[in-house]
Structure formats: C-alpha cells, structure tokens
Amino acid sequence: MTLVQMQSRSANATVVPRTVNDVMEAAGPQVCDDMTVEVAMAVMASARADHLLVCDEDGLCTGLVTQSQLAAIRDSAAYTDQLRLRAVLGERGPFASPATTMAEADHAMRYRRLAALPVVDERGSPLGVLALAR
Predict the structure, then answer these.
(1) What is the DSSP letter of 107?
(2) What range defines the domain where residue 85 resides?
(3) HEC readout, 34-75
(4) Tens digits of per-residue pLDDT, 63-106?
(5) 20 vs 88: CA distance, rounded Å
(6) 6 belongs to a structural domain
C-alpha cells in the first residue's frame, strides 16, 4: 500500500476565479464588415472555421458570425448576393474582456444562447474567442 500525503487547505485561502484569458482560443479568421455574406461563407469554408470575427475599417471587433447564422441568412427570402455583413450584424457585441470570469462568461453565453463569444481588449481589438466545448 502506498501512502499519499495530503495538504490541508487553509480556511483563509483565497480562490482565484478562472478568467476568459485562461481558456480563450486564438482569434482565428477575421473579416471586414463590408464583406458580402457569400464571400464570408467562402472564407469560413476555406478556413474550415465554425465562426468568423467581424471587424470594422479600423480593425475593431464588431461581432461574430457563425456558419449556421450565415446559412440562415442566405436561405432567407430577403437575401441578395450583395448583402454585407454589417447589415446582418446589427448592434456591436456582445463581447467579453480577458478579465471576465468564466462564471460570468458562461452565464452570458447560456442566457444569450451563444456558442462563441469574442474576447476584446479595452479598445475593442479582437484578442480571441471563447467557444463552448463541443
């Protein structure tokens, strides 16, 4: 029999919550918001990505689109091959900061039914993506 030495945890020990920065993925493919839905779908397919970060002309993140979102837009009656990503994104966000706790991010993603959440710095530049485990 092998003895295992255990260390007791102090009652005053501070538990540091994990943050988005600890688990986010690299930003991955980024496209400009003036790109058409059709071209964005081609970029996503060639990159074999489930999502694309969308940025404005200043390089600031405006949102994230998924393959299923773009497919639904393409299959809608209002779709034209000239439809731009900025027209389908709507308002900016939602985003997480690298300091957002995992508990906060998990709650936000479940509440909004998001599979992925862009992580941006204080200026709005994309740093990465927090994606739900598959």
Answers:
(1) H
(2) 20-131
(3) CCEHHHHHHHHHHHCCCEEEEECCCCCEEEEEEHHHHHHHHC
(4) 999 888 899 999 999 889 899 999 888 777 788 999 999 999 99
(5) 27
(6) no
